[in-house]
Amino acid sequence: METFMETTVSMPRIGDHAPEFKAITTQGEINFPKDYSGKWVILFSHPADFTPVCTSEFMTFAKMEPEFNALNCQLVGLSIDGLYSHIAWLRTIKEKIEFKGMKNIEVNFPLIEDITMNVAKKYGMIQPGESSTKAVRAVFFIDPKGIIRAIIYYPLSMGRNFDELKRALIAMQTADAFSIATPADWRPGDDVIVPTAGSCGVAKDRMDHQNDMTCYDWFFCTRPLSVDQIKTK
User: Fold this and answer.
1) Is the CB of residue 147 less than 8 Å from the CB of residue 155?
2) Residue 208 pLDDT > 70
3) Which fold has domain 179-232?
4) Cα–Cα–Cα angle for 184, 186, 187, nearest 5°?
5) How far is CA 106 from CA 73, 96, 103, 166, in A?
6) Domain spans of the chain, in order of start
7) Which pLDDT score is estimated for 207?
8) Number of Cβ within a 10 Å radius of residue 195
9) Does residue 73 have an active-site annotation?
10) Is CATH 3.40.30.10 what the domain over 2-160 is classified as, yes or no?
């Protein structure tokens, strides 16, 4: 719990169950996260409809939605605007906005109506030090069991890096599938980090049985993991 200007902000943490809620969206009513059981979800907030940074982000999310879906990941957006504002804004994006070669972009993932700020407050998306009337750019990665696995926050003025959002998703899925960790700046196809050996002897035993493993010291060992291997999982 953190307190800003006598306002308590509840912050769900990595490893917590995603707070439950029901909401009206541009794609109908959802029961979150129950409706997404068995899938990864990126739940993200934006400050307001009809704003330029948010428009660029929604166009990018919509363009990349098939890529996220192919990774068993669904997108769910939120702002504290009403449903009719959402609908009008998304229609404007499709009919009028062209940006970085993107045009006629249709947003098909749900955008939550949150006039009461109920959902935004549950997820700590309202940061009074930044704005008490708009949600910041929060991103929650939620796994198929409904557990929060990663959280990224951006200020109102800065658009998100979507390559990083996709990279983070793939990294977490790869770590789960192969029981490994990923080093700094990891991309699919790069070497991955194997679990800490615990002692020099254990590391040597592993190297005897895994010719493809490289140990820089007892605590730092890597091995190759190809893009094809990742895709098979």
Assistant:
1) no
2) no
3) Antioxidant, Horf6; Chain A, domain 2 (3.30.1020)
4) 160
5) 18, 11, 9, 20
6) 2-160, 179-232
7) 46
8) 10
9) no
10) yes
34-92 per-position pLDDT tens digit: 999 999 999 999 999 999 999 999 999 999 999 999 999 999 999 999 999 999 999 99
Q: Tell me whether the CATH fold assigned to 2-160 matches the one assigned to 179-232.
A: no
Residue 10 binned pLDDT confidence (cut-offs 50, 70, 90): confident
Neighbour-count burial of 165, counting CB atoms closer than 10 A to its CB (0-12 exposed, 13-18 middle, 19+ buried) = buried
Specify the pTM.
Answer: 0.89
- pLDDT tens-digit readout, 138-193: 999 999 999 999 999 999 899 999 999 999 999 999 999 999 999 999 999 999 99
CB-based contact 61:75 (threshold 8 Å): yes
The answer for residues whose C-beta is within 8 angstroms of residue 106's C-beta and 6 or more apart is 62, 90, 94
pLDDT band, very low/low/confident/very high, at 9 (cuts 50, 70, 90): low
Lookup: tokens for 115: 């006039």
Kindly write down the DSSP assignment for every residue of the chain, as one continuous string.
Answer: -EEETTEEE----TTSBPPPEEEEEBTEEEEETGGGTTSEEEEEE-S-SS-HHHHHHHHHHHHHHHHHHHTTEEEEEEESS-HHHHHHHHHHHHHH--BTTB-S----S-EEE-TT-HHHHHTT-B-TTT-SSSB-EEEEEE-TTSBEEEEEEE-TT----HHHHHHHHHHHHHHHHHT-B--TT--TTS-EEPPP-SSHHHHHHHHHH-TT-EEEETTEEEE---HHHHHH-
